[in-house]
Amino acid sequence: MLAFLIKRLANAAFVMLSVAFLAFVIFRFFGDPVEMMVNEQATQADREALRERLGLNDGFVTQYTRFVTNAVQGDFGISYRNQQDVMVLIGERFPATLELVIVATLISLVVGIPLGVITAIHRDSRLADTLQLGSIVGVSLPSFVVGILLILGFSVTLGWLPAFGRGETVDIGWWSTGLLTPEGRRALILPAVSLSTFQITLVMRLVRAEMLETLRADYIKFARARGVPAGRVHWRHALRNCLMPVITLTGMQIGNLIAFALVTETVFQWPGMGLLFIQAVTFVDIPVMAAYLMLVSFIFVTLNTFVDITYAWLDPRLRDDAARAGATG
Question: Pseudo-torsion of CA 139, 144, 145, 146, nearest 10°?
């Protein structure tokens, strides 16, 4: 187990160093930070002094080493556009994104799991066919289209929910949340539903496939033969054995939701990290772009590594396979 753990952590470190190299290349060769930071009245001497202070005259390896060292410490420099520390900006936006992702994940589980069970139990019914067709539509529609349709229906036409913004928020220390205010909760509904649409279809299809497999198992047949009520067989015995893949998928998709929430945040003008990244791209704010890339990659790598280690802990065969592969290599 120790060798497996060391190997997985080494792989994670290698991936992060590779991402750091990509972020550094973007940081170093796309745009001139000096020209973006100085004003128009700055002299050439001022520009050279700033270039020296930023260490831009050092060699490539020296600059890359400094970039990685600073990134490990959470230092990505100053935003060109806002003239603020990058991690301060991300810290201000991260609660909004995480709150949106958590609510979208909960919606996907609350809606997707029952729909998956229903389509498996009544797989030949018209209801199941309709839900399956709806899942195909949900997978096919881009998230920005879903967001625009929700705004058109519930904000413009019906006027029930706000079309943009986060509503009223409450600060709890450095964390800000809209879940504690009525306006904040109302503002969260449409973007969370939009972000969860694709996830709902994934959960529903996975639960359906697992349920169909589980319902053919011998212990389910024995439970039915003993006269156990159908609802208890389906919703307790069968569903319980289908949840492990769902939990795994949900954990893996959290990273995707954080990374791709930028589309939803742009449509609804949700003040999260995604909107910050879009604004950084618009104004070529390289430090913010590099920090966003590193942070999202770290979340992905951490979740993947955690899932791998958890699987290896639960199933010793994975550790043995990895050990044999390492010995063969």
Answer: 60
Which among 86, 92, 104, 85 has a CA at the least distance from the CA of 268? Answer: 104
**pLDDT at residue 318 is higher than 80:** no
- Reported confidence tier of residue 239, pLDDT bands at 50, 70, 90: confident
Assess contact for 166 and 184: CB atoms under 8 A: yes
Calpha distance 125→212 (Å, rounded): 15
CA dist 19 → 64, 253, 289 (Å): 12, 20, 12
* Spatial separation of the C-alpha atoms in residues 296 and 258, rounded to whole Å: 7
- Counting beta carbons within 10 angstroms of the beta carbon of residue 326, is it exposed (0 to 12), middle (13 to 18) or buried (19 or more)? exposed
Average pLDDT estimate for 190-198: 89
pLDDT digits (tens, 9 = 90+) for 240-297: 777 778 877 787 778 778 877 888 888 898 888 888 888 887 777 778 888 888 888 8
Walk me through the domains of the chain, giving residue ranges and CATH numbers: 2-72 (no CATH), 94-271 (1.10.3720.10)
Cα Rg, the chain, nearest whole Å: 25
Residue 176 phi, psi (nearest 5): -115, 140
Beta bridge partners of 176: 171
Query: What pLDDT shows up at residue 103?
Result: 92
